[in-house]
Every structure is written in structure tokens, then in C-alpha cells.
Amino acid sequence: MRMDSVRLIQNYNGIYNKFRQGEYIKKNKWDHCDEKKRKGAWTGNVYDRAGRVVEYGLENGVCQGLVGAYLISGQSWSRFSAYIASEKGKTVVRGIMNFQEHLSASGNMKEMKSVFHGILKSYQVNFIREEIKLTGNTAITMAQSILKSVSQGNGCHISIKKSSSGHSLGLRAESNQIKIFDPNYGETVFPFKNGISDEMEKFLIHIFSEYYSQYFMLTVEHYSASVFS
């Protein structure tokens, strides 16, 4: 994350925990050129028109898998970090992404939501509802749409998309703090009082403006679980 973003977090009395999904993928060898050495990760590759490999295995990202793990184990940064480093946590991240790759390859991506809901439910993280807004979004309206329906004890899978790609973020609203996890950059935590966090709203506007300015299709899935309280 850029230094101006880190300073913004500090100015808003927030906490920043750094993370890079690319480093996590490489550490686990999920992008190894030899499919037999990917340790259970997707064995397919992405090819260009000339037949050359442009992406090995899960090289393109594991954001939804990491968000799933975050909703399961993100009570604290240390707990989440330990979880995704464990074999159990890696199985969750890798499993979600393997499902995604398989469904994409077979033309059944519409099934991914129910698969994701089912995996989280097995960890007592229960889907409540979703809100979809595909047009007319700005950085401001996206931030406001996310936060207006968040309440203490809820978590969210936030999906943002543009025409050619998508990205997942995770949000946890706990007793006195609200957290956003971006697999590309890490976790940011702000105070959360009476269901309001002006700091988080300003920060979301910042990241949607500065990092994801082309992503204006928004889906927010809400979850409940005792681990969010």
C-alpha cells in the first residue's frame, strides 16, 4: 500500500496489517510451473492465443479464498495469519479457489455463490442476504452502500468487478471496531461506535478511488456468526 494511504490510516487512528496475496501464493507454490508441485492447487493453466502459458495454476490470485478464511478466522490478525499458514487454513483457501477455477472452466460460475456459502456454513459462518448494485456506482456510493447495512456481529464478502476481472474483500464489524481486509494489501481497522465509522467510510472512498477506480459493479454478501461478536 502506498505511503499516502498508510498516513491516511494513521491520521484516522486506524491500524494497518500488511499482506500480499502474491507472496502467499508463491510461498505455497500454488503457481509452480510444474503442476505436480502445486501442493493440491489447481493444475490447469491459462494460455494466450499462441498457446503460451500466461498464468500457472492459481497465479492470478486467491482473493475469494482468503476472504473466506478471513470470515472464518479474522478475530485477530495474529489468529488469521496463523490460520492461513496452517494446513487447515490452506485447505480452505485452496479449496475455494479450486472450486472457482473448475466452475469457471466448465462454464458454471453461477454455482460459485452457493459453493462459497456452503463452505462457510460448515464453519458456522452463515449467509444472510446479498445486495447487488451493478450500475451508477462511484467510490462514494460504493462505500456508503457497504456501510449503511453493516451492523455489529456481521461480516461481509465484498465483490467488486469491472468488465474483464473481479476482486474480493472481506469486512468484519465487531463490538467496537470495524475491519476491512484486501488480499492485495492487508487489513485496516478503525473504531466502530453505534454502528458508525466515518473513518472507514473515508478510507473505503480512498481505496475505491485510488486502487480500484475501474471497478464499479458491486455485490455485498452479509454473514452472521458468533465469531464476529
TrEMBL record:
Keywords: Hydrolase, Protease, Thiol protease. One of its GO terms (molecular function) is cysteine-type endopeptidase activity. Residues 59-213 form the Peptidase C58 YopT-type domain. It holds the Pfam family Peptidase_C58. InterPro entries: Papain-like_cys_pep_sf, Peptidase_C58_Yopt. GO terms for biological process: proteolysis. This is Cysteine protease domain protein, YopT-type. It comes from Rahnella sp. (strain Y9602).
